[in-house]
Structures
1.
Amino acid sequence: MTEKNIVIVGAGFGGVFAAKTLSKKLKGHKDYNIILIDKHSYFTYMTELHEVASQRVKPKHVQEDLEHLFYQNKNVKLLTAEVNGIDKNAKTVSTTEGDIPYEKLVLAVGGQSNDFGTPGVKEHGFELWSMEESLAIRSHIEHTIGQGAAELDPAKREQMLTIAVVGSGFTGAELMGEFIEQRKVLAQTYKLSESEIKLVLLEASPSILNMLKDRKLADKAFKYMENNGVDIRLGARVTGVTEDGVVFADGSTLPTKSLIWTAGVKAKSFISDWGFKYGRGGRIEADDYMHATKDDDTPEKDIYVAGDTLSYVDDKTGPVPQTVEGAESAARAAAANILADLGFGKSKSFAEAVKYHGFAVSIGSHYTVASLMGLNFSGFFASIAKHGINLFFYSQIRSAYSIFHYLMDEFFRTENGRNPFKGSISRLGNVLWSTPLRLFLGVFWILAALGNIGSLNDLFWQHGFASFLEIITGAGLFLGLLTWPLGLLSIVLTIVAWSTNGFDMTHWFIILSSLAVMNGSGRGFGLDFYVVPFLQKIFGGLWYGKAKSTYNELENKL
């Protein structure tokens, strides 16, 4: 039997979702191959690139090897190649690995940043629409702030310590939120005052997050950024970018060496000569069933569109947004109609396939504004909801193993307090898993002082000053307050009890447990998370002073 190929170009959310859906539905049909083509061998979680760019997570956090995603999908064949064009008459896709024949074709090649022809953006600025670009930003910011800290010329220093983001859409707002948190880390690393690192958000329109219908949520995001030292400039139309900074329409400038452009999205430019009807942003227009359309508005029978390549307006929900839900809704409709064409189901319009649950815009790891299932909210619970949304999307295309690592990377492996709990549950900030042991020790010492530990009462004390110390030790350990010195006191109390009342294996257990909780367990759901850094700041300042990136202690003596 002759095999037939369903070719999908692009391994973004739209392409991967379409491939997963088709693979499942065609599992028992050996005569169909699903061929997924992408120039990368991995899938990238595009909406989390700002976390990579700002050093919140490692690059691997937003990558998943395509082999891992599709290893169990035996009817999916992977091809790492670039697509050069389409021959609609011969029904082939031309790639750098040769021509691939297709029975059905899905175009989901994704998008790229749209600089609207603004001079100098590509030469002197950065864009955030690929893993490579996020890594370039990550390296540049670290290097430039480091250079700025060592620069003695005031004007050059200010220029190098200024980070500007153009565009206040989802990407721009989320990236700026990450920079708010990264600024603290950079300031500590290079002995700077946080106020020296200037964050500037440039928006040409009179408001931010203009895609939000609920303006109260946009106002909350605006206030959060403003309260955290972001210079938000509305009506700031950028007309050029130079080596020295940003040029505005009124002729004024902003000196900076770090400009990130997030002001627009368009389809990949190489699809412009593939012979379709193109809409806004160079996207391919589609009909209600996600067929690509020709210039005369007739559909291409065997070619479908999904993801950021798509231009389509639904009568009820409006234009399909460049979001994960938009990509998956289009892919869901395209897959259903391909299956219907092949005789394995009923056709389905976009309106029948679309599923929009809402959105969540994270302004860093600590604050989010969200509108989900008709509810608008912000802050901590919105941040948790944002992670819930990500996990929901992950569950549709990724494995339980990947979901586990997402949770680890976003909650338990985070550095510098960059998670919704501000680091209190991070394994890198404390020994989280010893927290239950700490709580147990706290309760044990309180009960020992009260004489409520049964046959073990004779091993400890229930009266006098020693009992008072047991109460203090137990309460402090339970609350996670001054855990290190109280852990040491717990060991001392146990050794004295051992020498006074005789040896029991319980003493060894208490000693070793006390030693274990001294390694930072008070910062895991404990008061030490707040108290220890405060004490370090106060007493460290009194004894060592405050480190700076530059000194001039002769200034007032000359």
Note: Residues 131-150 form the longest helix (20 residues).
2.
Amino acid sequence: MAKTLPKTDVVTVGVGWAGGIIAAECAKNSLKVVGLERGGGNRDTADFSMIHDELRYAIRYDLMQDVSRETITFRNKSDQRALPMRQLGSFLLGSGVGGAGVHWNGHTFRFLPYDFELKTKTIEKYGPKKIKDGYLIQDWGITYDELEPYYDRFEKTCGISGEPNPLGGKRSSDYPTPPLKNTVMTNKFRDAAKKLNLHPFALPAANLSQAYTNPDGEQLNACQYCAFCERFGCEYGAKSSPNVTVIPTATKTGNFELRTHANVVEILHKGGKATGVRYIDTVKGEEIIQPADVVVITSYVMNNTKLLLVSNLGKPYNPKTGTGVVGKNYCYQLNPGTTGFFEKERFNSYMGAGALGQVVDDFNGDNFDHGDLDFIHGGSFVVSQSGFRPIASNPVPPGTPLWGKEFKQKSIKYYTRTIDAWFQGASMPHRNNYLDLDPTFKDAYGVPLLRMTYNFTDQDKKLNDYLNTQSDKVMKEMGADTLTNYGALQDYNIVPYQTTHNVGGVPMGADPAISAVNNYSQMWDADNVFVVGASSFPHNSGYNPTGTLGALAYRAAEGIQKYSKTGGQLV
């Protein structure tokens, strides 16, 4: 028999960036918020004081989801049998308070104005035939200008270090802190880009260049360039994360209660409205019902979609008919690029910060003409010095054996003589790429696993080849003695690490027929349910998603406050 607790104003399912922002903003405005996190207890900077253990955190994924208890199943095509992902690889799902916001590198971009009106702008410039059959291209139902104030709020909460993108959208204010330092590596890329008439700028970083106090009074410190960002928490309090920003802010109000070891298995609803959530206390094994006036789904992309599907909330996407919206528009990302090997130059590549780098946006969005190209969009081009850690970093030139004496010798030689220049390539939604429930496999609580059906498309492959060509040109200008690009795309594989930039499944839009939520992240089918996160992106861009996720979370928090006063669909 489930235990029913007293009703709260707002309950969030997940306490990472999205859940933390919702909690802070609602709690500051006198709403009572319960944050449910399935991972262990709260954690802050002190918990990461001995974090420089590459084997534990980077190789064995100590901060990540336990896939023996909950995973996904995967297949490339719908006529294949999906099998469970038994080890983390292609992407790394965060776990615990702060979620993926604990172990991220800190790249904090704004999407381009083009992204939010992708369908409209593509047709206006190139005509309707530019969008190929099978691609589910749609606008977001919000423009960059409408979202810009929320970008600004997120950047000021985080203290982002950066400089304006010369090819990006207009800004209402500068970044709150200056860019991180440049290095020999990043200067080499910047200088080469300028010689090729490109427009480099400092990568916007949540690794702070100087100490900063955010508008809520939370203190962040200056980065030490230790190179332990991605897959690690920050023991200096210098990488902006939910644990040192929005979660402490929410807690200080007295209106926020954090509950850990709370694994939500169902959104309860009746008559077109949610009544609360059902979760398992994973320590006591107790089943608990938490009633709430507003339910906010703020877990990772995969679980946001899974919870809606297992709760029968929203219309599941059907790839055969093209109808339904939940599970639709799942997108990933491409990572073309070039590695350069230098015989006479050495770099302090063992040092760095997660988002220390230079970026070129000339090949992103529609910043270049696509008239004679058989694809749309592009990618941001980056050289970042995040730090070569010794176990995982063994760069060797082409033709080198992958073991033995020669491999060891060249690994040592090129450890400080290698530069990677790489793209984050945009991913467009396709009819055959989607998320649904697996009919066979279940998690540790008897809930069906989420099934991913995904493969790279012709659009992906053509964009990948084009961007590889561009990265080769820049690497040659940088003076590499030997270079090798990352090669053509093959079938997508779930195992080797690529990027934790999964988006879609609960797409946003202005039309309920093709979207699950409106531009406040409010569900069309249940107006007191808000689904906040990268799951609402109708497509992926050529950037990391976190900046846009944060902006949408601030807008959703505003919408929840409006809803708590007026009810109904927000416009």
Note: The radius of gyration is 23 Å.
3.
Amino acid sequence: MEEAYNVEVEFSDNQLLLRWFIEPGYYLYKEKFKFKVDGQTHTATLEKGKVKYDEYFEKDLEVFYNTTVATLDTQSLPRQLSLKVTSQGCADAGLCYPPYHQYFDIDLDEKLAQETGKPSTTGGSSQNISGNIDSNTVDTTSLSDGSATNLWISLLFAVIGGAILNLMPCVFPVLSIKAISLSNAHLSPHQQHLHGWAYTLGCIATFVAIAAVMLALRAGGEAIGWGFQLQSPMVITLLMYLFFVMGLSFSGVINIGSRWMGLGQEASQGDGLRHSVMTGALASVVASPCTAPMMGSALGYAITQPTFIALLVFAALGFGMALPFLLLSYLPKLANAMPKPGAWMDTLKQALAFPLYLTSVWLLWVLINQTNSNQVALVATGLVAIAFAIWLLPKLPEKGTGLWIGRLTALGAISLALNFAVNAKPEKADELWVAYTPKTLQELREEGRAVLVNLTATWCITCLANEKVALSTDTVRNAMKANNVQGVKGDWTNADPQITELLNQYGRSGVPMYLYFPPKKNAKAELLPQLLTPEIITDAIQRHKNNNLADISNI
């Protein structure tokens, strides 16, 4: 954790400043900061953080990105003191750390600060905390060093966490159907063992491959952690497509399970081992969005260790993932206890499709938070294109021109879906535009800034067309930058009385509405047409700029 969150101690008049430097992609929780001076809780002043809905705590929390400062008033403090600081952070990729404790010996007279280890309960100022040990004094981050004990603990945590991954909604359908198919495939004990180890190989190889890419990127300077692949909208989209197709397969709409996941009787054929390896790889891929209990500590330890140790921990994670299936292949009594084949298997497989559909919905929610509604609409269109291709292929004639036309049409639909996935990009903050509030607009006007107001809604086709052909073009954006024009966007997708009031002020009852305020404090707004072109906007900017220069020349 200390690699992602570096802290420096600074001194000011009657103040002690603790300044954190946070690596990109990581953040610290404001409410998790705690400060103790000689064992007694001390209040510090913290900056205002960014409000973020946190899945770990399931509520809105203030967090700090990049940097933050905590200020302690030292007027009432002893001149030599021991300071304990507690903080807790997470990575955007989903890896969260336990509370982290740091200890400092501070000399306010000499303005010296030295970070120390956990103090003893005897000697010096640490005597003041003797007998006041509570749960907060237990350092839960001791796995950060590379001792043999911590290595074995981390490996154990990785194996247990990997085993728990099998209970995740996205993994359980694959494992359960594979386990049932193996127990009913009339294999010899030796063949069952081979399939168990083939599945294990697929799991371990996949986890190690993902980890190797992550470590290579970290070595290249990227501040990423486990789950980094889920920061890519393209990967999220492809996974959503995969879960959707798997769900259709489990529902019986298409019959690809025996080829892709080694289901049914193919496990007993000569090439069944290959399918068991593929099943392990697939199960590991679909488990990548999930983080199980105990995984966090093990992965946090892994990314701070040399490459070989790190890959060893990830291999243990893959082994834990494969462990239930591997045990099944070695326990014939357990395998024989599995229900015998019958119509119920098809019903079970269809029922297990619904966790896969729900996983697709969850990934769609992740994509909404990563991109925007336009991108989500394209990805949803991609799902429809995939469904169309799946519907079309079984209806094609066995030969002739119609067969090839149908195949090319299906291929085109799938290519369209893949194109939407490849072009999915994270939505970046656009400094040219800020959200509309009456206060924001008033402050910009009092500064004498030129302002372009865009009142829009996602269900307004004209609004979306104007943004595409005019507002988002390089011509308009360059003109706004060159003339210091601030864009203000009011989203009327949901009812907003403040936007309604602004519409009424200019005699409008609906969107779109575009206003251009010239760079004068008291200048009146120009109401622009409802159908925009780049020239309409740039002409308005230039016209009012020239008028302003003419006014200045007449002074």
Note: The longest strand covers residues 5-12.
